[in-house]
Amino acid sequence: MKIEPKAPLSHSEPQALQTSDFRSRLKTVFLDRDGVINRKMPEGQYVTGWEHFDLLPGVPEAIAQLNQAGLRVLVVTNQRGVALGLYTAAAVDAIHAQLQQDLAKDGARIDSFYFCPHDKRQCNCRKPLPGLFEQAQAQFPEIDPATSLIIGDSLSDIEFGKNLNLKTIFIEGDIAHREHQKPGASKAAELADLRFPSLPAAIDYLLSIPTVSN
C-alpha cells in the first residue's frame, strides 16, 4: 500500500499539536531506523550489512541539530531479519557502530540503540509493544513519556508512540520511499500527531520554537 504525499499539519488544523508548549518541553527523541535514518529496502528485503545501508540526505546534520539542542537521541528498530536467520545481532551492532562513525564526521551521535531481534508474537520488544521503550528507560530512568517523541515511517512506530503516550511524527519520504511503504502507512499518517516528508524537515520544525513577545 502506498501513501499519497500530504502537506504537514499546520498550526491552524485541529489535529495539530500545541507545539509551542510541547517543543519547549521536549527532552528525548526516539527515531525509527529504516525509512527515517536510512533508505528502506523493498518489502521483504533487509539491511543485512553496511553495504546496504543508504543514509538519507541531511540526516547527519539533523541529528547534530538535536545533539546541539541538548536532546537525547535514541534509535528503536525492529530487526526481524535476525530471527529469520538473514543476519546476526552482531551484524546489527556492527552497522550501528559504523553509523556512529559516519555521524561523528558531522558532529552527530546517537545516544543509544535498541533493537528487537525477534519474530512476530515472540516477545515484548517488537514495536508496537513497549519493550524497547522499557529498555531505554532502564538505561535512562529520567525518560518521561510527557517529554518524549517518536519519529517513524510505519504504523508500528506510530502505535508504539500512542501506546506509550508519546507525541508522534510520521515520515512520508520521497516517491521512491513510498513505493516501499509497509501496509498501514496511510493509517499511520492519519494517526500521527504531525507528518513531514523527511527527518530533516521534522527536526527543523521541532527546533523552531516560536518566541512569545510581551
State the helicity in percent bands.
25-40%
Oligomer: single chain
Q: Proportion of β residues?
A: 5-15%
Head-to-tail CA distance between termini: 48 Å
Biggest β-sheet, characterized?
A: 6 strands, parallel
Query: What is the string of SSEs from the N terminus onward?
Result: HEHEHEHEHEHHEH
Mean pLDDT: 88
Number of strands: 6
Which parts are unreliable, with pLDDT below 50 for 5 consecutive residues or more? Answer: 1-19
- The radius of gyration over CA amounts to 16 Å
Could you say which structural class the secondary elements and strand pairing correspond to? Answer: alpha/beta
Provide a count of the helices: 8
Shape: globular
**Major sheet: arrangement of strands:** 3-2-1-4-5-6
Offer a few descriptive terms.
single chain; 214 residues; alpha/beta; 6-stranded parallel β-sheet; 14% strand; disordered N terminus
Note down, in words, how this protein is organized.
It is built from eight helices and six strands. With 214 residues, it is of the alpha/beta class. A six-stranded parallel β-sheet has the order 3-2-1-4-5-6, with helices on both faces. Strand 4 (148-152), helix 5 and strand 5 form a beta-alpha-beta unit. The model is unreliable at 1-19 (pLDDT under 50).
